[in-house]
Amino acid sequence: HTRCQVVTGVQTCALPISPVSRLAAKANRNPVTLQGHLISKLGPEKYLFRDPSGSVAVIIENEDWNGLYIHRSDKVQIHGELRKAWFFPPAVNSAFIQKFPTERLSRQQY
């Protein structure tokens, strides 16, 4: 299981970031933390996640969204468990998702 804790109302997980390119070397049911973008919806509760090293399917159950609205340009961090099956590409089963604050441009930056 992913080691997460709530500190002053914010949930954090003590795992290093796992680049998508390194998931193939990890064992089934290994806890992982991804950082990047949800690019598209692949099916019910299944999404395509991408970071600079590659992409992977992520399963996010409806109750795990906690009211978040995420656009494909939003940066997210996903804590979950790697799932590998013999005939299927690896996927990550999300236990927790968080959205990074949006960086807003000031008038001087236009």
Describe this structure in words.
It is a single chain. This protein has 110 residues and is mainly β. The protein has no helices and 7 strands. The strands form 2 sheets. It has a 5-stranded mixed β-barrel. The C terminus is likely disordered.
Summarize the structure.
0% of the residues lie in helices and 50% in strands.
Features:
7 strands, 5-stranded mixed barrel, about 110 residues, mainly beta
Numbering strands along the chain, what is their spatial order in the largest sheet? 3-4-5-7-6
* Cα separation of the termini: 44 Å
Distinct helical segment count: 0
Q: How much is the average pLDDT?
A: 84
Shape: globular
Strand content: over 45%
Give the topology string: H per helix, E per strand.
EEEEEEE
Helical proportion, percent range: under 10%
Helix-strand makeup class: mainly beta
**Mind telling me the C-alpha Rg?**
15 Å
Number of strands: 7
Contiguous runs where pLDDT drops below 50 for at least 5 residues: 105-110
Q: Main beta sheet, described?
A: 5 strands, mixed, barrel
Question: Layout of SSEs?
Answer:
Elements (H helix, E strand, L loop, with lengths): L3 E4 L2 E4 L17 E13 L2 E6 L2 E6 L16 E10 L2 E12 L11
Parallel strand pairs: 5-7
Antiparallel strand pairs: 1-2, 3-4, 3-6, 4-5, 6-7
